[in-house]
Write a structure and sequence with these properties.
single chain; alpha/beta; 8-stranded mixed β-sheet; 14 helices
C-alpha cells in the first residue's frame, strides 16, 4: 500500500531540482519496482533550483574564485590574444603578375579574311547566397565560445602540469587531478584554448566524475526506518539531522529524533530547538548515559508510536580514537539486536573544510558503521570544494545532500552540474 504523499512527484531531471529522498514500494527486496521520487522545495520548478545554485556559488565564492583566478592566470601566463597572433604571423607574398607576350600566328599572305564567329553572351551568374551562421552546439561552445580578444594558450604539457597543481591545491587529490586533466587533454593537445573554454571543460569532467554518486536517500516501507548519523566533532551532524527531520515532516512523514550525543548537553538542546520548529519529538537521556541504551529505547518508542523514521544522532568522534570508534560499533550492534536489518541508512556527515582528511574519515567509518551515503556540509567561503570530487572518484558512495549555510533551505539535493559550475566559477543561465 502506498502511504499518503504530499510532495510533488519529480521525474524530469533536466528541468526540476533533484529529489532529496526517494520512496521505494514495496520492500527493498522486491524487484522491478520503479521508485517514487519525492521532492520538496520552497518554490516549485527551476526557480528554486537556480536560487540554490546562486547561493551555492555565493558560498563557494572563495573556493571558486581561487580556482577561477588560477585558471585565468594559467591561460594569461603563456597566452596571446587573437589580434597579437595575427600580427606575428608573416604576411603571404604578393603574387607576381606574369606578363605574357602575345604570340604571333603565321598566316598566309594572300589568304582571305575569315568570317567573324558569333559570340554568345553568357548572363552573369547570380551571386551565391551566404548561409546564415549556425548557432554553435555543445562542441562549438567548447571550442569557440568567448570574445574575439580573449587570451588563448596552447594546451601543452606545461599547461597540463599547471592545471594538475591547481586542482591538487583545491583538495581534488593527485589521482583525481591526473585523471581529470588527462580527459581534458584528450584530442585537444596543441589547440589554443581560452580561459572560458578551460573552465567549461573542467566543469564537464567534474560533473562526469560525480554524476553516478548524485543519488537521493532511499526511504523504505520498513517502519520505523532507522537512520544513523555519524561523523567527527563539529562536522554538522546535529544541524543536518534537524534540517532533514524538518523536510521529512514537510513531506508527510512521521519522524522521531534520538539525541544520542549524551556527552554534549548543547547537542541535545540544539536538537530540541529543531524538534520544536519541525514539530518532531526528541528523545533524550541524562548527560553521560549510555548512547547505545538510548538508541535501543528510541527504537522501541518509535515502533510503539508507528513512526516512519527514527533519526539517531551520535557523539562526534575522531576516526583515530579506537575507544570512541568502538563505542560507535557498540551502538550498531545494539540496534541490530532490536532489528537485524537496521540501521537502514547510515549517513556520514563530512565537513568540507577538513580537505583530504575527509578521505580517511570515510574509510574508517565505512568499516565500522557500513556507511550508505554522504552529506557534505560547510561548503562556504573557507572550503576548497574539490574534496567532494576526490570522494566520488575514490569511494563512489552516494552523495545525498550538501549544505551551504544554517537556514533550512541551505540543505539541498546534490546536483553535480550545479556543483561543477559553482566550483569552476561558471555562470548558469
Amino acid at each position: 500500500m502506498r502511504r499518503n504523499l504530499t510532495a510533488a512527484t519529480v521525474m524530469n531531471k533536466g528541468k526540476l531540482p533533484r529529489p532529496l529522498v526517494y520512496f521505494e514500494f514495496p520492500a527493498p527486496l522486491a524487484l522491478h519496482v520503479s521508485p517514487i521520487r519525492i521532492r520538496w522545495c520552497a518554490n516549485d520548478g527551476l526557480e528554486c533550483s537556480m536560487a540554490f545554485f546562486s547561493k551555492l556559488k555565493e558560498r563557494l565564492f572563495k573556493s571558486s574564485s581561487k580556482l577561477e583566478e588560477g585558471l585565468d592566470a594559467i591561460v594569461e601566463e603563456g597566452g596571446e590574444t587573437p589580434a597579437k597572433i595575427a600580427a606575428v604571423e608573416p604576411e603571404a607574398p604578393e603574387a607576381e603578375q606574369a606578363v605574357a607576350e602575345p604570340e604571333v600566328a603565321d598566316t598566309p599572305v594572300n589568304s582571305p579574311d575569315p568570317e567573324p564567329t558569333p559570340v554568345e553572351v553568357t548572363p552573369a551568374a547570380a551571386p551565391t547566397p551566404v548561409e546564415p551562421a549556425k548557432s554553435p552546439g555543445i562542441l562549438g561552445r567548447l571550442i569557440g565560445r568567448g570574445g574575439k580578444d580573449e587570451p588563448r594558450r596552447v594546451l601543452d604539457d606545461d599547461m597540463l602540469e599547471q592545471l594538475e597543481e591547481l586542482l591538487i591545491a583545491s583538495d581534488m587529490g593527485v589521482d583525481t587531478a591526473l585523471r581529470v586533466t588527462s580527459n581534458m587533454a584528450e584530442g585537444r593537445l596543441g589547440k589554443r584554448l581560452s580561459s572560458r573554454e578551460i573552465k567549461e571543460l573542467l566543469a564537464q569532467e567534474v560533473a562526469r566524475v560525480m554524476e553516478h554518486v548524485a543519488k537521493p536517500m532511499p526511504i523504505y516501507e520498513k517502519r520505523p526506518q532507522v537512520v544513523l548519523v555519524v561523523g567527527v566533532n563539529g562536522s554538522g551532524k546535529t544541524t543536518t539531522i534537524g534540517k532533514l527531520a524538518s523536510q521529512f515532516k514537510a513531506a508527510g512523514k512521521s519522524v522521531v529524533i534520538a539525541a544520542g550525543d549524551t556527552f554534549r548537553a548543547a547537542a541535545v538542546e540544539q536538537l530540541q530547538v529543531w524538534g520544536t520548529r519541525a514539530g518532531v519529538p526528541v528523545l533524550t537521556a541524562p548527560e553521560g548515559s549510555d548512547p547505545a541504551s538510548l538508541a535501543f529505547d528510541a527504537m522501541t518508542k518509535a515502533e510503539e508510536d508507528g513512526a516512519d523514521l527514527l533519526m539517531i544522532d551520535t557523539a562526534g568522534r575522531l576516526q583515530n580514537r579506537a575507544d570512541l570508534m568502538e563505542e560507535l560499533a557498540k551502538i550498531v550492534r545494539v540496534i541490530r539486536k532490536k532489528d537485524p536489518s537496521a540501521p537502514h541508512n547510515t549517513l556520514l556527515v563530512l565537513d568540507a573544510t577538513t580537505g583530504q582528511n575527509a578521505l580517511n574519515q570515510v574509510g574508517v567509518f565505512q568499516k565500522l558503521a557500513d556507511v550508505s551515503g554522504l552529506v557534505m556540509t560547510k561548503l562556504d567561503g573557507t572550503a576548497k570544494g574539490g574534496v567532494l570530487v576526490a570522494l566520488a572518484d575514490k569511494f563512489g558512495l552516494p552523495i545525498h545532500a550538501i549544505g551551504v549555510g544554517e537556514q533550512i533551505d541551505d540543505l539541498a539535493p546534490f546536483d553535480p552540474e550545479e556543483f561543477a559550475a559553482a566550483l569552476t566559477g561558471l555562470d548558469r543561465g
